[in-house]
Amino acid sequence: xxxxxxxxxxxxxxxxxxxxxxxxxxxxxxxxxxxxxxxxxxxxxxxxxxxxxxxxxxxxxxxxxxxxxxxxxxxxxxxxxxxxxxxxxxxxxxxxxxxxxxxxxxxxxxxxxx
Amino acid sequence: xxxxxxxxxxxxxxxxxxxxxxxxxxxxxxxxxxxxxxxxxxxxxxxxxxxxxxxxxxxxxxxxxxxxxxxxxxxxxxxxxxxxxxxxxxxxxxxxxxxxxxxxxxxxx
Lengths: 114, 109
Hints:
Chain A is built from no helices and 11 strands. By secondary structure, chain A is mainly beta. In chain A, the strands form 2 sheets. In chain A, strands 2, 4, 5, 6, 9, 10 and 11 form a 7-stranded mixed beta sheet that branches. Chain A has a 4-stranded antiparallel beta sheet with strand order 1-3-8-7, with no helix packed on it. Chain B has strands spanning 3-5, 9-13, 18-25, 32-37, 44-49, 53-57, 60-65, 70-75, 84-91, 97-99, 103-108. Chain B is an all-beta fold. In chain B, strand 7 and strand 8 (70-75) form a beta hairpin. Chain B is built from no helices and 11 strands. At the A-B interface, strand 10 of A face strand 5, strand 9 and strand 10 of B.
């Protein structure tokens, strides 16, 4: 059981380049999330999805886009990367529902923008 | 605004007990979570409190006081593998998780 898988694990970009992070989960979870984690700060929610075909903005959505075309996949796109987007990105999922609190995280994707 | 406060770093000795505190001010409350995160790895779920009191799970216990906006994670019989960051998160009235910056716990032999 793979759980939540993120690709790529590491990436270096130049300012202005674009890229897509892929998150895949095999637990049939409804809810999926993209977070970024920066030193000295808590996890910050970028975008999330409560089901296939739905997306919503989180706390820090600017500069990012997402898509949830299939239930198992949640894509995070950077159209024009900036140095401020250097971070570790975590995808997470959970079954959904009011009492469903535990998040299952991927291993993270470390992105550096030069 | 919404705020979660935890100590930045703590040091403890192998075999001892350590208490990591978390205070919060959020728009509503629908549960508090503790996660463990080893360096370079993903956070993993430790505990969930929604009612006041102590929840025990093996060597780890978590306490909640909603009236005081306070929780703590208690780790007993510390092992070297417990060296990690411990993240406190509160679910607010919109069922969004608000995360603390985490407490880095260093275990010394």
